[in-house]
Fold each of these.
Amino acid sequence: MLVTIKDDYESMSEQAAQIVAEQIRRKPDSVIGFATGSTPLGLYNELIRMHRETGLDFSKITTFNLDEYVGLPPEHDQGYHYFMWENLFKHINVDPRHVYIPDGMADDIDYFCEWYEEQMAEVRGLDLQILGIGANGHIAFNEPGSSLGSRTRIKTLTSKTVKDNARFFDDPEEVPKYAITMGIGTIMDARKLVLVASSEGKADAIQATLEGPITAMVPATIVQMHQQAHVVLDTEAASKLEYEHHEGIVERK
Ligand code: F6R
């Protein structure tokens, strides 16, 4: 596992964007997995800047998002379709025909999840998956206790997530209770993982993820089993790591 620790959120975002950009330059038709949440926003802004200023070309990439709420139409401003288009896709030259985001309005969710996995297989899998991490160690919507071998499926959101999300909805009935999420096994199939984490609120989860035992109770710990995982942190997220770090870069084999 490669761990890079940067001084602040901006340089963490730039470093992660460099990794994504290198992947796309090396293989213009890369298949890239995207995450939502606040952490990758800086990375997405940097990709947009690279597109505008250096001509980084996204026209041949295919994208797969990690997750989406069930029951929200694509135009809903709390949904992840909206998030991805607003914060990245509409600012770069991605081909909309090559954008895959789970369909939270699918009539048959189980069928949809199988189809989503098939689409990933059809393009020979993901070259690179971007990941954030929850304070409890979740990745995508794989909360503690999720099977480490799981595939794309519907998950019930924790009562805490439902409660936290309630503030974004006028009608409590509208707050999603389920989500479609790639499984941990799906994520592990990506040929490269780039996990970004920033701020002290993530320090315990990062310490457990990098230095603790692999356990379904901290789903992100599974990245220890990945052959090409690059974890990019700011100093606050790295503040509880116990191992020594050299010039901000630690390589663990
Ligand atoms: C979203 C996702 C989530 C977030 C995680 C961290 O697609 O995969 O697991 O990465 O909840 O969210 P932030 O970055 O908002 O702290």
Note: Residues 9-26 form the longest helix (18 residues).
Amino acid sequence: MNPEVIKCLIIGSGPAGYTAAIYAARAGLQPILYQGLQPGGQLTITNDVENYPGYRDGVNGPQMMEDFKAQAERFGADIRYGIATNVDFSGKPLMVTIDDNQTLAAHTVIIATGASAKWLGIESEARLNGNGVSACAVCDGFFYRNQEVAIVGAGDTACEEATYLANLCSKVYMIVRRHEMRASQVMQNRVKNNPKIEIIWNAVTEEILGEHAVEGVRIKNMVTGENQEIPVTGFFVAIGHDPNSKIFVDYINHDEQGYLRTIPGSTKTNIDGVFACGDVQDNEYRQAVTAAGTGCMAALDAERYLAANEIH
Ligand code: NDP
């Protein structure tokens, strides 16, 4: 027996996916949303969100995502645990396999699988994540105003975030693992000319110090072999992100890093009926509010696609 064809399948449960679900449900598309590996997405590892409009006094990340979810469910979105493990977009309907054992057929698929920050992979980093360790200066820098912080990385993101932090913090140590930076010259100059930023070259992070909150960082100079402890209260990791796009890249146009390409001004991909929103297609802004905005766009694009193709 052929599987039932649903109108709208949403993959991913960050601000983009849930916003798509709210709009799709209110439009009568009866969306089914699969939450993926990290229900609630990257915000579930953030303590406080203070820059999402509407939460005047701030909100903690997991609570905000619960609110998004409850709002989607209120309009009848069917939110399920499960990970999309495979897709077949070679024909219509679009086929998506969940947890390697169930296949769904859908007229439209909204990809909202986000991106994951890269981490150093050391034990203290995981233990103190959310308690002084962060991968987003724009999200969490404010909590360390007038304090000393460290940031790891040497790309454009690290330079941009170091500069952002220097506006708030009393001092920023930038830990660079080589004797040069990968970042564009203009971004490097901005960092090098900022008196609040001290660049520590040829250094790798051995351990983030502190039991329940960050108290410092121990780094090792790769040239001299010497260890050094720096007292900081915030530790930012800015060594890049990976878009969660692996199962789609055989079908969907993408850039060299795997970010899905959408037609500018829309969430349309190169495959009719497949839309992408949020961080999986955005290497530039990466904010909850921009992700939510494109989630809305994806649901509207899906609705219009269904109407244009007279799928009721
Ligand atoms: P990148 O991949 O460009 O840079 C990652 C940086 O992290 C590199 O300097 C790398 O060091 C370092 N790194 C990686 N792993 C480790 C590790 N384990 N320990 C220490 N350091 C590590 O990522 P970005 O996020 O900076 O940028 C991604 C893309 O987005 C780029 O194309 C960038 O140009 C773009 N971008 C543009 C912006 C703008 O124009 N305003 C702003 C932000 C991003 P190494 O160099 O030694 O490999």
Note: The chain is about 25% helix and 25% strand.
